[in-house]
Amino acid sequence: MEDRQFRNAMGKFATGVNVIATEVDGEVYGMTANAFMSVSLDPKLIVISIGNHAKMLERIRQSGRFSVNVLSCEQQEESMIFAGQKQVEDKFEFERLGDTPVVENALCQLSCEVYNEHTEGDHVLFIGKVNDLVLEEGDPLIFNCGKYRRLEALEEAASK
After folding, report:
1. Tell me: the pLDDT tens digits for 47-89?
2. pTM given for the model
3. Which of 70, 82, 79, 64 has its CA nearest to residue 128?
4. Domain covering 3-148 assigned CATH 2.30.110.10 in the classification
């Protein structure tokens, strides 16, 4: 099968949109990602997947920590900025959660330290131990079939 066909197949799976952030030598870096999931409750572990050629890969290795910021449906602009799809004149301002930079108003901010690392194919999976988190109310930003989307509640089936 061709790479494009495989990418299109994977795009059929709707995902949330996240910004992964880390800090190296006082400089904060972020990237948009959707490859994220929970792994364990005890200890509290998550996993992110970073491409072998992404600049973020070495930055996370250097810092040993990162945040995962689950974006709200009002944060498409933030997603586009960190995906390199939109340029901004001013430097993006991050908040802090402990020692970790986080995106303001994200639905969920997870502050993590690298717990383990696995190279699989052309990506590296970072297992992160969650040290702290902040939750907000709202609906997530969704990505499906190459487009940003919003959640829409389905009507519940009528009682029989």
Report:
1. 999 999 999 999 999 999 999 999 999 999 999 999 988 887 7
2. 0.91
3. 64
4. yes
